[in-house]
Design brief:
2 copies of one chain form a homodimer. By secondary structure, chain A is α/β, with parallel strands linked by helices. Chain A contains 9 helices and 15 strands. The first copy, chain A, starts with a strand and ends with a strand. Chains A, B: Keywords: Oxidoreductase.
């Protein structure tokens, strides 16, 4: 056993609008000898996710905001380098929520050993095989269930959740899967790699114009990562008994003002629609079902994924901001090892 | 058998904004001898309902708009005066959808015989014991189910659906039922007669100010008859996993412009809320369950109701407009007999 220095990124200001590098600081923490029942983990990848923006605000919410002056928490995957807990031995690959740091030393109960699939990089356990994939799965099975033959629309479709959701929708029986993304390059990726039937660039014309063109028969399910104009356009074309999973509203996360909701809420009544919001914490009971089905799909080559990897803990804040700006395709992760 | 003159009210213009008497005309139709399998019914009461405003517009919808130059359809209850159909004999009390007229003569299949509860006026079968009561029941059992101990908020609470919904919410186990209405008189009726725990006049201060005062612990279920500011205020205070039944948006029915939606849609995600719209036609499978439970509640004296009765077919249009303006307490009906 030995002492080690852990580099950690902390939130020091609550951002107004877009976060800046000045809202964060990097500190060094010295870990001494490992107490009994603890493990020391060297992270390989850490996750930057849209939901983190919300937790930077000091608003009443189901999960408390990030603490000022404390290390940013969030998903990470690493390898155990020292252990005084027999249930989590050295060399285990573990997932945890200790966030933006290179080394973590905590009680063994805070870590979950990954059942590795041979040949899969560890970053995938933060993305398609992890919380990101589970988010897409929960949305399309419980929140807005996809039925055989459905037309499904997914916004932010080239993002981490969206690129997985499109594929899951097809695997669940959807006939037609339509995606929106913020560049022509991403739009091409959607149909070429992620199995989308059709896709459009929401920056090139109003969503309200483009979506009906791609969905002449309407849509049955909408998986919303964006909110705003996308939700409004979806409410225009949702078929009777249509379902909406509200997963994210990245269009509003950095807005300093509240924004008006859709001007066509009356369609919810007329069409008998269901809109349901969700955060993953309420649906972890689906995790084992997801792990089983996703492993099978993955091993059968029925799921592909992209990721955007940024190197170096010191680039984490920039990676987070790039992800919020949509610079990523697929899951954005930071390689710390 | 004899000839008879039927007076019928027809829609002749599609109103823009508030309907006017000029949008309607009254015609006389002469019915001759009753064909085989038909019945002739003299109406006793006809129903005027908020949903009718929507059908006056020529918009794509799940049910076609009212036809111009045709008699207004809608709920009515009357008595069979002649019959050539053994299954619907003379003197039967029947419900039907032939709407705004004093006499109707049609095939027997278009009529449903009422199982009368002794001492109950026939108008109740259009309201608390009929479609109105069923609407409240569907909303609080299927769309936004009430659980034991819930706090329930109901807007337009003194209206036909709202005054029944408050009582059903209590019977389903709600701890606290809060209602909004548009006058101090109605507010008093809510707590004194309809079992509401608390009520407020939405015209005396913003709903967003008043609702949190009446719901310091938040709300679990919102039954929305109004839309607009009421829905926005409800989204502010809905507890985790809260449920919203979107039944009506009377605040917008006569608006010539679209109105922006709630500015706090993000709460749907944060709080894991469900918003579901409905129209009764999709939920008629609950009718027999409702009839059973409601008859029991009613016979036990656990349900009370108000109605506003307007006399004379010739006052139907005015009654409809008064109802849209909120002049009624409880169900608004027109006595035609």
């Amino acid at each position: 056993m030995s002492n080690v220095i852990s580099h950690q990124i902390q939130l020091v200001n609550r951002p107004t609008g877009w976060p800046t590098p000045e809202d964060f600081r990097t500190v060094e923490v010295s870990y001494g000898e490992l107490p009994m029942g603890h493990v020391r983990v060297v992270n390989e990848f850490i996750s930057v996710d849209p939901y983190m923006r919300g937790r930077m605000n000091d608003t009443k919410s189901y999960i408390p905001p990030f603490e000022l002056g404390a290390t940013m928490t969030g998903g990470a995957v690493g390898r155990v380098v020292e252990s005084t807990a027999s249930e989590v031995p050295v060399d285990s690959v573990v997932l945890h929520q200790y966030g933006w740091r290179d080394v973590v030393q905590e009680e063994a109960a805070g870590f979950r050993i990954v059942q590795e699939i041979p040949g899969v990089p560890l970053s995938a356990y933060l993305g398609v095989l992890g919380m990101t994939g589970l988010t897409a799965y929960v949305g399309l099975t419980r929140i807005a269930p996809v039925a055989e033959g459905d037309t499904v629309f997914i916004s932010g479709a080239a993002g981490a959740v969206g690129s997985t959701a499109g594929q899951i929708a097809r695997l669940l029986g959807a006939d037609r899967v339509i995606g929106s993304a913020g560049s022509d390059e991403k739009v091409a990726v959607l149909t070429e790699r992620f199995g989308y039937t059709a896709a459009f660039n929401y920056k090139s014309a109003p969503v309200r114009t483009q979506l009906p063109q791609e969905a002449p028969q309407g849509i049955d399910v909408y998986f919303d990562n964006v909110g705003g104009d996308h939700l409004e356009a979806a409410l225009d074309v949702l078929n009777r008994q249509g379902r909406v999973a509200l997963c994210g509203a990245i269009s509003a996360y950095n807005s300093e003002q509240t924004e008006p909701g859709p001007d066509n809420m009356a369609n919810i009544i007329k069409q008998g629609l269901s809109l349901r919001g969700f955060t993953l914490g309420d649906h972890m009971d689906l995790a084992s079902e997801f792990n089983q089905r996703m492993s099978t799909w993955f091993s059968n080559g029925q799921i592909t994924y992209d990721e955007t990897v940024v190197d170096g803990l010191e680039n984490t804040v920039e990676a987070f901001l790039d992800m919020m700006r949509g610079a990523n395709t697929g899951k954005m992760v930071v390689r710390t090892a």
